[in-house]
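Suppose a classmate hands you a notebook page containing two proteins, each written out with its sequence and a corresponding row of structure tokens. How would you begin to make sense of it? This section walks through that situation. The first entry is reproduced here exactly as it would appear on such a page.
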Amino acid sequence: MGWSDAAKAAIQRAHQAMPEDVLLEERMKLIDAAYPFGERSCFPYKAWLKERRAYLGRYGYRGRGEKAHMSPLERMMAKAEPSHD
């Protein structure tokens, strides 16, 4: 089992233990508490962050610098809003 597989397994165990209606902030705390590798550094930590981002993305999480993906309707509505300059 590689680092990514171990990270996925830990995240899955944490996911199964939490209620369905957990808010994103609490979900992040529960997932972060499930970190399985000891020190948060080097490749194991990078693998963890990748799997964490993929999991939390399903619940609306956007990492630093990640832009929200807008649907065509949302883009149209944003263009139609009057400018307040």
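The notebook's second entry, a different protein, reads as follows.
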Amino acid sequence: MNKVTQKLCDQVGIDVNYLTNTKQIGLIEKLVELVVDECIEIIYKQDRLPPGFFYGKDASTYEFALRKHFGVDQ
């Protein structure tokens, strides 16, 4: 589990150090993946706006950054 996901879990009161069930960890990681996918979908919809909306960067740049930040593989 990536450090960002661990930090978010800590913020909501889930101590991942005490999770012994790998299914629980997998469910948390899947939830993060789904949230990241939803964010990326919004970015690609916004990418259809006039040029410059994303300060000259295309949506794939942001997709890569989000996936890297949250440790979500493509």
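A careful reader of the second entry would note: The chain has a mean pLDDT of 83.
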